Amino acid sequence: MKRRTVIKSGAIGLVSASLPKITLAMGSAKKARDAEYDYILTAEPAKARIASGGDSDILGFNGQFPAPIIRAKQGKSLRIMFINKMDEPTTVHWHGIRIENSMDGVPFLTQAPVAAGGSFLYEFTCPDAGTFWYHPHMNSVEQLGKGLVGALIVEEEEPQDYHDVIVGLKDWRLKKDGSYLQLSIPREAFRDGTLGTIATVNGEQKPTIEVPAGERLRLRFLNMDSTRVFNLSLRNPDAQIIAIDGSPIVNPIPLDVHPTGAGMRLDVGIISPKEIGIEIPIFDMKGRFGVEICRLKTAASTSKRSPKIGIPALPENPIPAPQLNGAESLSFVFEWAGALSPSDAKGGVDHNFWLINRRAWSDHSHQDLPEPLAELTLGKSYIFELHNATPHHHPIHLHGLIFTVLESDKKDITPFHTDTILLEKNERAKIAFVADNPGKWMFHCHVIEHMKTGLMGYITIV
Ligand SMILES: [Cu+2]
What we know:
The chain is built from 4 helices and 30 strands. It is mainly beta. The strands form 6 sheets. It has a 6-stranded mixed β-sheet with strand order 10-9-12-17-14-15, with no helix packed on it. A 6-stranded mixed β-sheet has the order 21-20-23-28-25-26. A 5-stranded mixed β-sheet has the order 11-19-18-13-16, with no helix packed on it.
């Protein structure tokens, strides 16, 4: 989908009819351009064929699954008019973007929820190029579980010599007839989370994705599932990891098997075979055995460029380097509460299975915000010492910042940048960053059920 070829017909008319034209402040170079949205994005109920036996009632961005791919340019501003056509409130979070706090899309923390029938103009600059994604931050088990997840691709300032291939991963909790199974089962939420029953790649089950022959490909894997870890692997001797969670790897590393947790991304560079019709299966490894998730198949290339040799690194993003000497260290312990709190105010069961520093974020407390987990000083460097004191893995995501993973007691780490760290059971890791983005930033597990049953908090940077 191209910029401005946006969205289903009708949506554009609806916007211009129902919303006032935006008056842009003159004198601001960033905003001095025509009053025009880059994207119009809706969240709305729709039907989609996911299961073989019948349509499913989904929640779709622009009523579709997969959602429209939003493309932005590094260093340039992006404007998205969001319209909520569902009958419940929502917000949109732009995962991995070092964004202005008011645009981060967390209800009550950074903005009022977008009411049913309401709209919100998201406008922000993407300082980093890479593979990012977007999703609501409200009623997430259902809204993400029923389809509200999409890719946000920020292109480098200088075009890269790669052919882009999006591999968007999401499982669904569906029966064969397309109706839903219970999206969250408490005894699973208490463990690794409730897995889907139907796996999709770009909205299809085990698709064959056509790619040009003899080209340098950039496979952009996006784990947009609410639960699953994909141990990504492909049997191509040249496959190299070129970026993790949007952040380029300075020296690309050969891809063997790379665990990619919920919310995480992986960019892999390969050179496709010159011959047409060659298939390259892609696997989620379970130990020594792989479950195929999709395959690539070479087709005639229209490109007349010269033959490709090597997998070049992507240009680094402008992430400030933390000063480790003298940086303040803060400790975060992720624990397993393993109990059902008897009831909430309405008499229902309030499941809190998980704690950060001995505190659970109750789903019922969003309107009545808890205290932050930590208060950071703007401009200072911090080291976070993370301890997963549970027998389950957790992809821990920090909003608004990109951090550096320094070390782990479970594996050798060559420091790398990311927005989400997949902590294995009982793992201890150290991360560091410069607290250069003021605001309130969520710090939570991206296994959606873990987050909804306690494993969520926020830090402030003032
Ligand atoms: Cu978790």
